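Dear Dr. L.,

I hope this message finds you well. Following up on our conversation about the binding site, I have prepared a predicted three-dimensional model of the protein together with histidyl-adenosine monophosphate. For your records, I am including the exact sequence and ligand specification that went into the calculation, followed by the structure tokens. Please feel free to forward this to your student if that is useful.
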Amino acid sequence: MRDILPPESARWRYFVDCFAAAAGGAGYGQVIPPLLEDIGVFTRLGEATDVVTKEMYDFTDKGGRHIALRPEQTASVCRAFVEHRPTLPFKAWYAGSNFRYEKPQRGRYRQFDQVGVEALGSNDPHLDVEVISIAWDFFADLGLQKVTLVVNSLGDPDDRDRYTRAVADYFNANSDDLSEESRATLSRNPLRLLDSKRPAEAEIVAGAPSIVEFWSPEALSHFDSVRAGLESLGIPFVVDERLVRGLDYYRRTTFEFRGGTLDSAQNALGGGGRYDGLIEDLGGPATPGVGFALGVDRTLLACDDEGVFVAPDVGAQLFIIDTTGGEHALLLSTVLRRAGYRVDRAFDSRSMKAQMKAADRSGAALALIIGDEEAASDQITLRPMYAGGDQTVIPTSDLLATVSNLINTVETPNPGEQ
Ligand code: HAM
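The resulting structure of the complex is given below.
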């Protein structure tokens, strides 16, 4: 678990703002689920899922309830839907922390943030395409150019069950070639073996049966429509018949976004799919659903690797230097903040030199200086902090108009304010 400090924290907030604009623009409203849920909400994600069986932070609270910190938010949004029954289609976006007891490494943390959407109430393959296109366009908004979209269909529940049995039979017949860990996975969740990253198992995984032969005509037709929709939007994708993903609730469409530069074990920037059946498992009426979540940490790492989406400048625009005791700084900083500027100042009656240093560090475009002379004549010295700017002395009464002119000429607006 990490602390996110400035300036990175400003980038996180701006990231969420951009996502909110992308999802909001497609008719999705924000849902803010609690961080904790009854453990039953998550065990329905699948008893064979590592996220549930091995990685959950669960405990008994003071009232004796068995609860867990959410490892993801799809289940929470579905639980909220069952509880509140909003009208369909219910289109929700969310942003926030999740908790998984994983082995921490670059791009993998025990507390990590996701942004995501869930769309409940329609089987229409166009909804799958809409959801994917929101993520795709969001990556483009960030400036990422090396993202690959990988899609697959896990078929309908019967198809998936028959396929799981075929995969289990295949790996059982070849279990001598599997590591001990993979044999354990085979007994718990055979489909996960298709995700094996062990080089020694690459060949045996490559020979496993393909889901393609197990798709029902309806599942195939749904997948065809999803692919056609993506093509009509010009969204490039590759089909990977071995894409199963880590959660058990997926039916039909599954997809993943992979970054171009992160290590392969951490290169999934996000993913999602259909989970028709999950709402029923949570005690609601039969309601189809589709959605995705993107890892904020990983997507920002991908931005670093591609050199895009830098932190917006949210530091001070103006820095007040008051060598007369601080009264002027107190008043001026308040007046200027109320006028909408980001203003900082020094405290503790520090020397002119120390205050200038602080102004420099603050990144402000303009220093406002009040020394004894300025105070006596009701004036302020404006010193531009950028090369080539001329220092001027103005009457205090001209301050707001002058600052407004100067700031407009030196500042390009923050991306978040465009
Ligand atoms: P997921 O694949 O488990 O899916 O997580 C989505 C993304 O969250 C991953 O691709 C990754 O970027 C990020 N992530 C997961 N675990 C960690 C971690 N320990 N540290 C950093 N980032 C991580 C879900 O969570 C589903 N709820 C997605 C979904 C929504 N499916 C349908 N709707």
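In brief: Residues 412-418 have pLDDT under 50 and may be disordered.

With kind regards,
A. P.
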